[in-house]
Design a protein that fits this description.
Order of helices and strands: HHHEHEHEHEHEHEEHHHEHEHEEHEH
Subunit structure: Homotetramer.
Helix content: 25-40%
Function: Catalyzes the formation of L-homocysteine from O-succinyl-L-homoserine (OSHS) and hydrogen sulfide.
Largest sheet: 7 strands, mixed
Oligomer: single chain
Enzyme class: transferase
Catalytic activity: O-succinyl-L-homoserine + hydrogen sulfide = L-homocysteine + succinate
Protein name: O-succinylhomoserine sulfhydrylase
CATH class of the largest domain: Alpha Beta
CATH superfamily of the largest domain: Type I PLP-dependent aspartate aminotransferase-like (Major domain)
Number of domains: 2
Shape: globular
Strand order of the largest sheet: 1-7-6-5-4-2-3
CATH architecture of the largest domain: 3-Layer(aba) Sandwich
Structural class: alpha/beta
Low-confidence stretches: none
Length: 395
């Protein structure tokens, strides 16, 4: 199957077939190469592999057939030339940052990102003299005003975590390129089924494979997708040396997840839109955040940029943290966990979980109030999900 150009095939087919190389055993399913190292036929072959003169497997920290199949499949789905798989989503962001940036460089990052992403740019990279300016995701004047001569990277999530704000990727890509910077987009909430940032001008796509790419909450993993030259020259040297590698077993699990990704993302979006519409009609809900709703501030942009709204719905309840916790604690079926992207619906209180390590002022600036609840809507029966939420606020 190595002579097939997967760009000629639809996304659903790519998700099942792209990147597979059958061994001499002619297996139908993707095999797991559970080995730390690979054996060479001679000392000369070993030297040629290590020098790069001869392609082939060396050590699973940076060359493993199962991981490579996952990388090639995800690259095909995103429309990218290359993918580098990592041990987690945060490892993907850190690898991109350490590969692309050096002391004295500057980053502009959206406030509407996962809490650990904020802390990575603000605290960890700050220790290495990389400065970061945080701006509101949809304030394009603020993005432009934050740019400096030393700005090298613009980073954002769209839709954002947890308010599902939507940024104009093409507009920010143009802004970045006009100032000699790169644009990186975390595509975790949409996946390539619903949104392809590279086609809109982004340079790098980031994934937490732990989420929708797996879809079952089984394994940790991350990925970086982009142009081969960019990844090979700037990011791969860090991942090969630093070792934030995805394990072969996890890569195999993600390959199984990718096979159903298109079906799941469509079903997640249908359930989420129906739930968001219902939540808007409830008296105990102050506001619902979901790109598929006409009430969403960036609804028209989402219609142009995304194939559907995705599976994440956030909403604020009257009564602040006490009311939010009461609702969460009253549920019986929903999983109270900060993870997302599973077939099982999950619910969490961002202010005290995913964004708890931010200061109160930082949470306020990001719009994360005490009454905000984030749900990753799964594939259960919609009425069962509604009924679980009704336990705290019957009627």
């Amino acid at each position: 199957m190595t002579d097939i150009d997967w760009n000629d095939y639809a996304l659903e087919t790519q998700a099942i077939r792209a990147g597979q190389r059958r061994t001499a055993e002619c297996e139908h399913s993707d095999p797991i190469f559970a080995t730390s190292s690979f054996v060479f036929s001679s000392a000369a072959e070993a030297a040629a592999r290590f020098s790069g003169a001869q392609p082939g497997n060396i050590y699973s920290r940076f060359t493993n057939p199962t991981v490579r199949t996952f990388e090639e499949r995800l690259a095909a789905l995103e429309g990218g030339e290359r993918c580098i798989a990592t041990a987690s989503g945060m490892a993907a962001i850190a690898s991109a940052a350490f590969g692309l940036l050096k002391a004295g460089d500057h980053v502009v990052c959206s406030r509407g990102v996962f809490g650990n992403t904020t802390l990575l740019f603000q605290n960890i990279l700050g220790k290495f003299a990389v400065s970061t300016t945080f701006v509101d995701l949809t304030d394009y004047a603020a993005w432009e005003a934050a740019l400096r001569p030393e700005t090298r990277l613009l980073f954002l999530e769209t839709p954002s975590n947890p308010l599902t704000e939507v940024a104009d990727i093409h507009r920010l890509a143009t802004l970045a390129h006009d100032h000699g910077a790169l644009l990186a987009v975390d595509n975790c909430f949409c996946t390539p089924v619903l949104q392809k940032p590279l086609a809109l001008g982004a340079d790098i796509v980031i994934h937490s494979a732990t989420k929708y790419l797996d879809g079952q909450g089984r394994c940790l993993g991350g990925a970086i997708v982009g142009a081969d030259a960019l990844l090979e020259k700037q990011i791969y040297p860090f991942t090969r040396t630093g070792g934030p590698a995805m394990s072969p077993f996890n890569a195999w699990v993600f390959l199984k997840g990718l096979e159903t990704l298109a079906l799941r993302m469509k079903a997640h979006s249908e359930n989420a839109l129906a739930l968001a519409t219902w939540l808007e009609s409830q008296s105990w809900v102050e506001r619902v955040h979901y790109p598929g709703l006409a009430s969403h501030p960036q609804h028209e942009l989402a219609l142009r940029q995304q194939a559907a709204g995705g599976g994440i719905v956030s909403f604020a309840v009257e009564g602040g943290q006490d009311a939010a916790w009461r609702l969460i604690d009253a549920t019986r079926m929903l999983s109270i966990t900060a993870n997302l992207g599973d077939t099982k619906t999950t619910v969490t209180h961002p202010a005290t979980t995913t964004h708890s390590r931010l200061s109160e002022a930082e949470r306020a600036a990001a719009g994360i109030g005490a009454g905000l609840i984030r749900m990753a809507v799964g594939l259960e029966n919609l009425e069962d999900i509604k009924n679980d939420l009704r336990r705290a606020f019957p009627g």
